[in-house]
């Protein structure tokens, strides 16, 4: 269940004109763009429409997390935007995820609803502090795997997950479950504040359908050249793996 080009560029900004210009510039060089709270809270539906007018799929990354009725209402209000992908938090529970899936199933059918498993900013210590019993990386991965399975059972189309959890999620949820992976850094680029990073080729090899890539493209001197370089890196890795 992949897009033609797996790269979705994260337009993390409140600068409307910059985001719109970059979305147009990147069209054809990436599979889509992602806009999140920062952009959407600043510019709302009109801002969304201007980015979407670049003519490519949009991932609306608002990570809804509330009681089922409120999440269903929120998604219902967003449904007419018809983003390619939208998300909720898996920690909102099965009933909330089912409400999310049911709300958008009645619409155009094109929007994929996915769940954030565990924020990659949280580790085993954070899980313990939150009252979960997590004794290390394995326990964290089991937690993520469980959340992904709950999302799948609730009828969602996939998850946002760390590249390091891809194999466990594929094993639990099968090949058709959409996996959207942030924390991607081309081999040649600085990691910034991302910790558990992976190269685009490594993430794809391990089963990522969508690679969310922000600053390595948006902060490059030439964003189109940066996107092209990542595409070339992916093509070379795929060709090498076929030999
Ligand atoms: O600039 P960078 O490539 O680090 O951007 C990654 C994008 O993915 C950002 O929009 C960030 O909010 C998002 N994200 C993340 N880690 C998650 C979920 C989303 O980095 N666990």
CATH C-level:
Alpha Beta
* Shape, per Cα inertia axes: globular
The percentage helix is: 40-55%
CATH homologous superfamily descriptor = Aldolase class I
Gap between N and C termini: 24 Å
Bound molecules: cytidine-5'-monophosphate
**Lateral arrangement of strands in the main beta sheet:** 1-2-3-4-5-6-7-8
If you average the pLDDT, what whole number results? Answer: 92
Q: Return Rg in Å.
A: 17 Å
Order of helices and strands: EHEHEHEHEHHEHEHEHH
- Strand coverage percent: 15-25%
Give the low-confidence spans.
Answer: none
How many beta-strand runs? 8
Please tally the helical runs, counting DSSP H or I stretches of 4 or more residues: 10
Overall tally of domains: 1
* Main sheet summary: 8 strands, parallel, barrel
CATH architecture call: Alpha-Beta Barrel
The structural class is alpha/beta
Could you name the CATH topology? Answer: TIM Barrel
Overall description:
The chain is 46% helix and 15% strand. Helix 1 (16-26) links the parallel strand 1 and strand 2 (32-36). It has a single domain, classed as Aldolase class I (TIM Barrel, Alpha-Beta Barrel). The chain has 243 residues and is an alpha/beta fold. The protein has an eight-stranded parallel beta barrel, surrounded by four helices. It contains ten helices and eight strands. Cytidine-5'-monophosphate is lined by residues 10, 12, 36, 119-120, 160, 182-183, 192, 194, 212-215.
